[in-house]
From TrEMBL:
Start and end residues of each Amidohydrolase domain: 53-535
Keywords: Hydrolase
Protein's name according to its UniProt entry: Amidohydrolase 3
Database matches in InterPro entries: Amidohydro_3, Metal-dep_hydrolase_composite, Metal_Hydrolase, YtcJ-like
GO MF terms, alphabetically ordered: hydrolase activity, acting on carbon-nitrogen (but not peptide) bonds
């Protein structure tokens, strides 16, 4: 019996399906599934009077982009919160906050949030403090997160409201204290997680607005699928899952959403079991469960990434969130539940710990999907070879090279810097890579990620020859991170990632051919169309 449903045809284009038989000129989809990838005649033969037919006039068609790790609701919230990424002084941060509060006078929300500051870019070369944020407001509670999202700073009303004192001890986290033993306002890793868990939960209306804003921003960049971790914003895995499932059932999801379920320890396993039962009953089309996520360490910029040796620019090796025995047991239980596991691991100590847990538990054998390392920034040849032997995949973040290169040598020293951010070495070894943005830590946009992977430069074109230029990817390799590689890493290679009959009708149409422009220009190519499930989600 023939399928029925809405039909869409694209003709007169240049189609790069990333699959046999190679380039085509058109595609035809029915009810969100591709039926034809071929020439215009084959496509038009399938059309009837109800088919939406779009003449692309030679534009360039690719599989829809996928971002395999971000924070969708946080990204949406960031679009209506102070953006602190370009502030160059604490004085500038204070003024940015005052301006934002003045614009939001009379708003219902009591708490004031912002994100993006980086002490490495501030003239004062230090973390902001509660006293600094008190100059923005000494009555309204404020939380400003570092760009990485692993460190935050609170003002005095926020500390008082949450009951954060010098004697607060949080597993896997640090509350910074001044010389008198009083909180400076800075909370790191697990302590920031504790703060976020004790914030007033956002209302459904707020969540829907942040989802809408975030999804619209991603669609403008050609993204049709994301894997998102929004636990820190919602604070309840079951409520979070129910929210997305309900949005999907109501037809309000504008893109595919795979949920990354963040577990902070064994106490969350009971909730995981209930969520898995809910997922079996879910009848939506665009939302599904993705991997279980574990955060093993922090970030290099915050000096909380876990290293095997001290940081090159000062004492300390960062923070590990789990003891190895605890992690092995937790990964084993996740594996027993039939779930894929994805470990945030930026430092080489965290990477080594994750691989030990994967090897001990046989991670990936039950669910059939590879265990994953999110970020995978610091490692060496031995660790990378071990990833190959264990079949471990990596979600890499090319934009981090553009952001981090000025500090990498100072933080890591020459030896570790040479083997870090080694996307080409991993790919050549046979490690399957996917592309992610970690938005709002970085501005999402696969084309910008592709530019960074191809050039290893920042937006100012620095450094001149790219950071560790031997690690540059070729343009097709960089595109694969956000298409076929992403689908494989997420265990969805049979459903998406290439343009083939029987796969999802997820496409992006670019206004210029990325294979015919200079690498530095790829990030500026306009996105003409974004299609998810055969439905137009963005149109220039």
């Amino acid at each position: 019996m023939e399928r029925s449903g809405p039909t869409l045809a694209l003709i007169n284009g240049t189609v790069y399906p990333f699959a046999a038989p190679g380039k085509a000129s058109g595609v035809f989809s029915r009810d969100g599934v591709l039926e034809v990838v071929g020439d215009d005649r084959d496509v038009l033969e399938r059309c009837d009077a109800r088919t939406v037919v779009l003449d692309l006039r030679g534009r360039y068609v690719f599989p829809g982009f996928q971002d395999t790790h971000l924070h969708l609701l946080e990204y949406g919230r960031s679009l209506v919160s102070p953006d602190l990424r370009d502030v160059t002084s604490i004085e500038g941060m204070v003024q940015r906050g005052r301006d934002a509060l003045a614009r939001s006078a009379g708003a219902r929300e009591l708490w004031h949030f912002g994100r993006g500051w980086d002490q490495n870019r501030l003239a004062e070369e230090r973390f902001p403090s509660r006293q600094d944020l008190d100059r923005i407001s000494d009555t309204r509670p404020i939380l400003y997160e570092r760009v990485c999202g692993h460190v935050g700073v609170l003002n005095s009303p926020a500390l008082e409201r949450l009951g954060v004192r010098g004697d607060l001890h949080v597993h896997g986290g640090v509350v910074d204290l001044d010389d008198r033993g009083e909180p400076t306002g800075v909370v790191r890793e697990g302590a920031l997680n504790w703060v976020q868990a004790h914030l007033p939960p956002p209302e459904e209306e707020q969540l829907r607005e942040w989802l809408r804003l975030g999804a619209e921003g991603l669609a403008r960049g050609g993204v049709s699928t994301v894997q998102t971790d929004d636990f820190s914003l919602v604070g309840d895995l079951e409520r979070l899952t129910d929210f997305y499932f309900e949005e999907d059932a109501a037809g309000r999801l504008p893109l595919r959403v795979d949920l990354q379920l963040l577990l902070s320890g064994h106490r969350d396993l009971e909730a995981l079991s209930r969520i898995l039962a809910r997922a079996k009953a879910h009848q939506g089309r665009l939302c599904r469960l993705g991997p279980v996520k574990l955060v093993l360490d922090g970030t290099l910029g915050a000096r909380t990434a876990a290293l095997r040796e001290d940081y090159a620019d000062g004492p300390g090796r960062g923070l590990l969130a789990f003891e190895t025995r605890e992690l092995v047991d937790l990964v084993g239980r996740i594996e027993a539940a039939g779930c894929q596991v994805a470990c945030h691991a930026i430092g080489d100590a965290a990477l080594e710990q994750a691989l030990e847990a994967f090897e001990t538990t046989g991670a990936g054998t039950r669910c059939g999907h590879p265990p994953r390392i999110l970020h995978c920034q610091v490692g060496d040849e031995e660790l990378y070879d071990r990833m190959v032997r264990l079949g471990v995949a990596a979600d890499v973040q090319p934009a981090f090279v553009a952001s981090d290169w000025p500090m990498i040598l100072d933080r890591l020293g020459a030896d570790r810097a040479r083997t870090g951010y080694a996307w080409k070495s991993l790919l050549d070894r046979g490690v399957v890579l996917a592309g992610e943005s970690d938005a709002p830590a970085e501005t999402p946009g696969p084309l910008e990620g592709i530019r960074a992977a191809v050039t290893r430069k920042d937006l100012a074109g620095q450094p001149d020859y790219g950071w560790m230029p031997q690690q540059r990817l070729e343009v097709p390799e960089a595109f694969w991170l956000y298409t076929g590689g992403a689908a494989h890493v997420c265990g969805q290679g049979r459903r998406r990632g290439t343009l083939e009959p029987g796969k999802a009708a997820d496409l992006v149409v670019l206004m210029e051919d990325p294979f015919r422009v200079e690498g530095e220009e790829i990030g500026a190519i306009p996105v003409g169309l974004t299609i998810c499930g055969g439905v137009l989600r963005h149109l220039v």
